[in-house]
Amino acid sequence: MTVTNVLIAGVGGQGAVLASELLALAAAAAGKDVKQGEFHGVAQRGGAVFSHVRFGDRVHAPMARRGAVDFLLALEKLEALRYAHFVKPGGTIFVNDFKVEPLRTADERPYPDDAIDFLRSKGFEVVVVAATDTAMELGNHRAANVVLLGALAERLDIPADVWQETLRARVPQGLLELNTKAFAAGATPP
Amino acid sequence: MTTLMSGNEAIARGAWEAGVLFAAGYPGTPSTEVLEGIARYDEVDAHWSTNEKVAFDECVGAALGGVRSLVTMKHVGLNVAADPFMVFPYAGTNAGFVVLVADDPGMYSSQNEQDSRYFAKMAKVPLLEPADAAEARAMIGLAFDLSERYRTPVMFRTTTRLAHTRSPVELGQRSEAPRTAFTRDVRQYAIPVFARLRRPELEAKLDELRAFAEQFDGNRIEEGDPGLGIVTHGIPYQYVKEVAPRATVFRLGMLYPLPEERLREFCARFDTVYVVEESEGFIQQEMASFGILNVTGKERFTNIGELSADLVASGLEGAPVPGDFSDEVAILPRPPVLCPGCAHRGVFTALRQLGALVTGDIGCYTLGCLPPYNAIHTTFCMGASIGNATGFRRAGEEQVVAVIGDSTFLHGGLPSLASAVYNQVATTMVLLDNGTTGMTGHQEHPGTGHTLKGAPAPAVDYEQLIGALGVRHVQVVDPWDLEATKSAIEAGLAHPGPAVIIARRHCQLLPVEKAKQHVPYRVIEEECVLCEECMEAGCPALVWEGDYPTVREWECVGCSLCAQLCPAEAIVA
Predict the structure, then answer these.
(1) Which of these CATH numbers, 3.40.50.970, 2.60.40.2470, 3.90.420.10, 3.20.20.140, describes B343-513?
(2) Measured between CB atoms, which of B4, B308, B325 is closest to A85?
(3) Of the candidates B220, B218, B36, B78, which has an alpha carbon nearest to the alpha carbon of residue B145?
(4) Which of B104, B243, B274, B275 shows the shortest CA–CA distance to A63?
(5) In this complex, do A35 and B165 lie within 8 Å of one another by their Cβ atoms?
(6) Chain B residue closest to A37 (CA)?
(7) Hey, is the C-beta of A107 within 8 angstroms of any chain B C-beta?
(8) Domain enclosing residue A78, as ranges
(9) What CATH number does domain B220-317 carry, 3.40.50.2300, 3.40.50.920, 3.30.930.10, 3.40.640.10?
(10) What is d(CA B356, CA B376) in angstroms, rounded to the nearest whole number?
(11) What is the pLDDT of residues A140-186, one digit of tens each?
(12) Measured between beta carbons, which residues in chain B are less than 8 angstroms from residue A39?
């Protein structure tokens, strides 16, 4: 029984939930059993948001166990650190080269600018993706989630036409071209 | 046809398939999408009510009137609706009546962790709980059948994880339920007068339900390892299947009343049986009351927070749950924040500058208690702010302000304001009127001018309403104007009687606001004196980059609060 575990994390408003819904829809369309569970707190924006997507022959739990995630997609660097312990030894972390300072709290330590080096030192495969920059070049920073998804898609056995159909079915008509370009840009980085 | 659905969407679908004709509720995470989902079906008359008790009463009327009815709420909503929930079972229903209650273990978006299963026992009504979206779709239909067969309201309990997890669901067709006419019979339906007559019937009905539980196929045994027996339910069942796939599992779909004899037989097969349940030890306690004592449960599986496959594995095998990397690297907390341009920000800035004691309420604005806003000092439950402020005034505090959102005010604030007026307590209240139910995702309410189905509706006129209650000092202010907001609150505090300030500006995430063109602000670095006053706004569009504050122009909606805070006029449009 094989199950692929993906964890998508970001800051509220970055589209982590939409990205995970697209992945879940594509996996289901490719004939797999799927569970996609999202975790978010109060209010609409700004807090940490993450979502598990699990697909394979038969999926029970909505979230993967710690140390069992195959791919972590982090829309923000600090969020990569927050969920890295879910990734299996030697697993892959796709991280958007983008920083969102959290609001100041009682924890006055500086933002960990060494996040990527730290993750590499732990033996993870870290793929740095300029997802927000790429999305901004395409005209809308909010498409960073789909850029990252395009990068992940290269590692999964979900056919390209299934991805295209999923984007067409789920993304609003006016944003389809942007998201199709974003997905392609993630799949074949410059 | 199979489609991917959240638990909430599947419940909406299943209720529609079961022929539901009326549905009502009040928004509350994680229950909200059930009513939003069922409202999409033309056959169903669905609406947002002012609060959960109102929704419950409406559904009682509809079910007695002969149509299958669904009422939806989160766990704390059931507290509000507890009055009719405890009494209606004495009468029993006519058409099918199901109470959907969504618990929030882990308190992702709630003020408390409350195991609502105890409510079913207290109200003496049957309780069903599904384990995934596909089962939720089928089980909600069964709940309506059960309700009609035993003429009882049925409680249908979910949790955040069930409600918000998407998984494949096989869809069915809608079948219309027959309408059954209401029979006027005060001995059945005028409970206070005839409660003594009805009371023994409630017990007789429970005995029938106990017999049903023994043969219900939603309570089923999955045979496996004869040396490992587990009793479980709902989402924890999925964790058990994940970590102990070979165990012998008694999976309960009906949580009250429990199948006593089948549980007794099951447990007799093992030395010790594990009871894996989330939140409190409800099943374990019920089993203990049956005299089934060779069980272990809450000793191993915490009643605090949400369970997980890791925690279930830890409870079964004793293995520790791996921690994160926070000992090695600065994983800074990232609490939720008020959005750029949020109208609450101006009110909180004013309140902090005035130094008032502020009683808070339930909504996005509850975040006002956190840094850097530091403006709210108490928050408990829906509508509590006004009564709490009145109490603080009675205790001798002078500078007290209650803050409450528009939807919350209509939900539970009105009686408290009437009490303050009636008793002539100089309670000052700020109505945060952002024109929507913000935190749960922009639901309509009696003040917005639209119904759940999108039809135009009369909008409450707050000035008239509050004036009619007898409040003599009512002032409307734009919370984007800091000085005006501050003076309005000061004037309210100076007024000798109850005073209301209406801080009126739309939630910036409403489509009508997002469609607007904004002129973003920017920082002139040469003018900046590095005083950091602007950072007190706590705005995610204003970040410290390099040596200066910087406005992320694509986030900025031009509210100008940071510019109003800047003493050096270094922030300009």
Answers:
(1) 3.40.50.970
(2) B325
(3) B218
(4) B243
(5) yes
(6) B165
(7) yes
(8) 3-100+113-187
(9) 3.40.50.920
(10) 9
(11) 999 999 999 999 999 999 999 999 999 999 999 999 999 999 999 99
(12) 108, 164
- Which residue of A lies nearest to B241 if distances are taken between CA atoms? A60
Number of domains making up chain A: 1
Please report whether residue A105 resides in a domain: no
Note which residues in 134-153 of chain A have CB less than 8 A from chain B.
141
Interacting residues of B117 by C-beta distance below 8 A, sequence separation 6+ = B127, B157, B255, B256, B279, B280, B282
Domain covering B2-215, topology: Rossmann fold (3.40.50)
Instruction: Select from 3.30.70.20, 2.60.40.420, 3.30.70.270, 3.50.50.60 the CATH code of B522-572.
Output: 3.30.70.20
User: What's the pLDDT band for B447 if we cut at 50, 70, 90?
Assistant: very high
For B435, left (φ over 0), alpha (ψ -120 to 50), or beta?
left
Residues B425, B426, B428, B433: is their CA dihedral positive or negative? positive
Report CB contact under 8 Å: A82, B331. yes
Nearest residue in A to B245, CA atom: A60
The answer to whether the Cβ–Cβ distance between B167 and A44 falls below 8 Å is no
Domain locations in chain B as residue ranges? 2-215, 220-317, 343-513, 522-572
Total Cβ atoms within 10 A of residue B564: 17
Query: Residue A93 domain-assigned?
Result: yes
- Residue A181 in any domain: the answer is yes
* Of residues A65, A81, A105, nearest to B309 (C-beta): A65
Of B176, B168, B158, which is closest to residue B44 (Cα–Cα)? B176
Q: Is A134 left (phi over 0), alpha (psi -120 to 50) or beta?
A: alpha
- Contact of A68 with A88, CB cutoff 8 Å: yes
* A60: contact with B, CB 8 A cutoff: yes
What is the pLDDT averaged over residues B387-405? 97
Peptide bond into A189 cis (omega under 30): no
Q: What is the CATH number of the domain that holds A13?
A: 3.40.920.10
For residues B48 and B38, give the distance between their C-alpha atoms in angstroms, rounded to a whole number. 12
**Closest chain B CA to residue A85:** B324
Residue B334: which of A43, A48, A63 has the nearest Cβ?
A48
Cβ–Cβ below 8 Å for A112 and B439 = no
Amino acid at B65: G
- Nearest chain A residue to B161 by CA: give it: A37
What is the pLDDT, as a whole number, of residue A41?
Answer: 66
**ipTM, 2 dp:** 0.95
Chain A residues in contact with B165 (beta carbon < 8 A): 35-38, 62
Could A37 and B166 be called an inter-chain contact, meaning their C-beta atoms sit closer than 8 Å? yes
**Structure confidence at residue A48 as a pLDDT band (50, 70, 90):** confident
CB–CB contact B335 A47 (8 Å)? yes
Equal CATH topology for B343-513 and B522-572: no
Angle at A131 between CA B549 and CA B442, to 5 degrees: 70
Q: What is the pLDDT of residues B465-502, one digit of tens each?
A: 999 999 999 999 999 999 999 999 999 999 999 999 99
Q: Is residue A107 part of a domain?
A: no
Chain B (303-322) residues lying within 8 Å, Cβ to Cβ, of chain A: 308-310, 313, 321-322
Taking 3-state DSSP, the helix, strand and coil percentages for chain B, each rounded to the nearest 5, stand at 40, 20, 40
Which one of B4, B366, B509 has the shortest CB-CB distance to A34?
A: B4
B172 neighbors B204 (Cβ within 8 angstroms): no
What count of CB pairs under 8 Å joins A to B? 164
CB contact set of B391 (below 8 Å; sequence gap of 6+): none
Question: Among partner residues A11, A78, A122, which is closest to B332 by beta-carbon distance?
Answer: A78
